[in-house]
Amino acid sequence: MAISTTERRRFAVRRLTLNNFRNYADLRIEPTSDMLVFTGANGAGKTNLLEAVSLLVPGRGLRQQRLTDLARQGQAGGGWAVAARVETPHGPCDVGTSLDPNEDDSGPADDPIDGTTKGPNKGPGRRNIRIDGETARNQSALAAVMSAHWLTPQMDRLFQEGSSARRRFLDRMVYGWDPAHAGRVAAYEQAMRQRMKLLRGDRAPDTTWVAALEETMASKGIAVTAARLDVVGRLATAAAEGWGPFPGAEIALSGDLENSLLGGPALAAEDRFRNALARSRADDARTGRTSEGPQRSDLLVRHRPKNQDAELCSTGEQKALLIGLVLANARTRATEEGGVPVLLLDEVAAHLDEARREALFEALQGLGGQVWLTGTDAELFQPLSGRAEFFIVADNGAERIR
C-alpha cells in the first residue's frame, strides 16, 4: 500500500533496544502504532523509556543527567546503549548512542549555553553516536535523522524558572526545523568557554587568539539567534490560535542580539556583537560570565485570551500554555516542510481535567505523528482504547497488553 505524503513527513520509532540502561538489563520494543501508552507503578521505569528515546536527539535527554548516571545499577563495567530503527521523512534509519566507560569524555558539552565558566560534561566514559552503522563525530549529527520533543512534570515550572530552561525548550524545537542549529550552538559554546578560560587564566591572554574566538562567537551567535527568531516567527500564528481548551499564546524572543538582528542586516549585527565582546573582556574576566550573546536571550510567552504574562498565570494555565506550544510546533511542522516530531509526554494527563484530557488526545491523533504517553493511572487513557497500543511496565520490562 502506498504511503501518503503526510505519513512520510513524520518521525517514528519502530524498534527500541536498551542494554544496561537505567533499570533495564535488556529490553526490545517494536511499536506498531503511532499512539503508545505506558502505564505502571511509580518507579517501574516508564520515564526511563521516554528518556531513552530523548537521547536520540542532541543533548542530555529529558532528565539532563550525567552519562554515568544512566547505567543500570550493579552492572559490571558501567556502560549502556540505546538503539532504534527510526522512520524519517527520508526513509528508515538505524541510530544509536552508547557510553564507553573506558574512555574519558573530552568533547564539548551539549548543555544549553549559559555564559558561565562551567565546562563540558567530562568524566569517566565517552558517549558514542552511530547512524546507519557509521560513527558520527558528535551529537549534532542526530538532529538530521531524528526529531523529538517532550513534556515532563518538571517542566510545569518552565515559566517560573530561569531563562536557560526556556532556551533549552525552544532549541529542541529549532533542532527539528534546522538540524544545523545543534552544531552552531555547540560551536558557539565551545568558543565561549575557551575565551573565558583565556580571560581568567594566570597569564595575560593572547589577544590574537581571543579575537579569533570572538570572531567565531559573533558568527555562530548571530546564526543561533537568527534560527531561533525564524522558528518563533513560524510558530507565532499557530501558537496564537490555540487548540480547543489550550489557550492561544503570544510568543517572542527577548535579547540584545534579537534587537540587533531585527534592526538591520546580519553582518552589521555580527560586527556589533564582535565589538561588544572585545569591550567586555575585562568585565567578563572579573565576573566569570560572558555578558553578551545568545545565552542572554529569553523566550517570552503571554496568555493571549487573558492578555497576561505566562509567569503570572495559574499552574493549570501555565501547563495548558505549555501543551499548546508543543501542539503548535507539531501542527506547524505538519503543514510545512519537514516531519512531525515524536512527542514524549510524561504524566501529561495526570493533572488535566476530563475535558482537557480528551481534547489533548484528539489533538494528538490529529497531528499524524507518533506519541509516547506515560501514566500511573490506566483509567485516564480509556478514551484511547482501540486507538492506541497499551503497555504495562513492571519487573524491568514492558509488556504489550492490547
Task: Please describe what this structure looks like.
This protein is an alpha/beta fold. The protein has one domain: 3-Layer(aba) Sandwich (Rossmann fold), CATH 3.40.50. It is built from 10 helices and 15 strands. It has helices at residues 5-8, 46-54, 163-177, 180-199, 207-241, 256-262, 266-279, 281-287, 315-335, 354-367, and strands at residues 12-21, 24-29, 35-39, 80-88, 91-100, 126-131, 134-135, 148-151, 249-254, 298-303, 308-309, 342-346, 371-375, 389-394, 397-400. The strands form 3 sheets. The protein has a 6-stranded antiparallel β-sheet, with helices on one face. The chain has a 6-stranded mixed β-sheet with strand order 8-12-13-3-14-15, with helices on both faces. Helix 5 (207-241) packs across helix 9 (315-335). The longest helix is centred in the middle third of the chain and has 35 residues, at 207-241. The model is unreliable at 1-8, 106-111 and 115-122 (pLDDT under 50).
List the topology elements.
Layout: H1 5-8, E1 12-21, E2 24-29, E3 35-39, H2 46-54, E4 80-88, E5 91-100, E6 126-131, E7 134-135, E8 148-151, H3 163-177, H4 180-199, H5 207-241, E9 249-254, H6 256-262, H7 266-279, H8 281-287, E10 298-303, E11 308-309, H9 315-335, E12 342-346, H10 354-367, E13 371-375, E14 389-394, E15 397-400
Parallel strand pairs: 3-13, 3-14, 8-12, 12-13
Antiparallel strand pairs: 1-2, 1-4, 4-5, 5-6, 6-7, 9-10, 10-11, 14-15
Helix pairs in contact: 3-5, 4-5, 5-7, 5-9
In the CATH hierarchy, what is the architecture at level 2?
Answer: 3-Layer(aba) Sandwich
Round the Cα radius of gyration to an integer and report it. Answer: 21 Å
Unreliable spans = 1-8, 106-111, 115-122
Give the end-to-end Cα distance, rounded to a whole number of Å.
Answer: 24 Å
CATH class: Alpha Beta
Strand order of the largest sheet: 2-1-4-5-6-7
Percent helix, as a range, is 25-40%
Shape descriptor reads globular
Annotation field: number of helices: 10
CATH superfamily: P-loop containing nucleotide triphosphate hydrolases
- Looking at CATH, which topology would you report? Rossmann fold
What structural class do helix, strand and pairing data support? alpha/beta
